[in-house]
Amino acid sequence: MALERTLCIIKPDAVENKRAGAVLAHLEDKGFSVVALKKIHMSQEVAEGFYAVHKARPFFGELVDFMRRSPVVVAVLEKENAMADYRAAMGATDPAKAEAGTLRKLFGTNVGENAVHGSDSLDNAKNEIAYFFAASEVRPTA
Ligand code: CMP
User: Fold this and answer.
1) Does 117 participate in catalysis according to the annotation?
2) Which in 68, 103, 107, 138 has the greatest CB count within 10 A?
3) Domain of residue 46, residue span
4) How many domains does the chain have?
């Protein structure tokens, strides 16, 4: 298995509920390294740009408003098989359908307010990491 990186966003609901530290601890316990980390408050432009792929969805406006409601924590996670393993750690998009012990089951509320985001492919992980982090903020790969 290859050493990979993926993007994690701890969403406004989880940050407001003071669960950001718990999310990071949960991921570190599962073997992920946090190689870059910051707390940001997304502008309308940044949130719309990040979720541009969902622009035509009926929930787009609601999604952008939610992601701008208060600050988020963005992190670059590194681990062997990080992309798929982090998706497994997050659980299903809808917390009601997520497996016990997953981040969305533990900390999510509903399909809109589901505590965490994760990249869904290695290509998207690369693009999403570059969307939030300058090259100088991320340790170069070995
Ligand atoms: P995320 O992984 O951040 O990527 C897109 C997000 O859209 C997803 O998590 C959900 O939080 C959100 N989403 C998906 N379906 C719905 C829906 N029906 N209503 C509101 N938000 C949704």
Assistant:
1) yes
2) 103
3) 3-134
4) 1
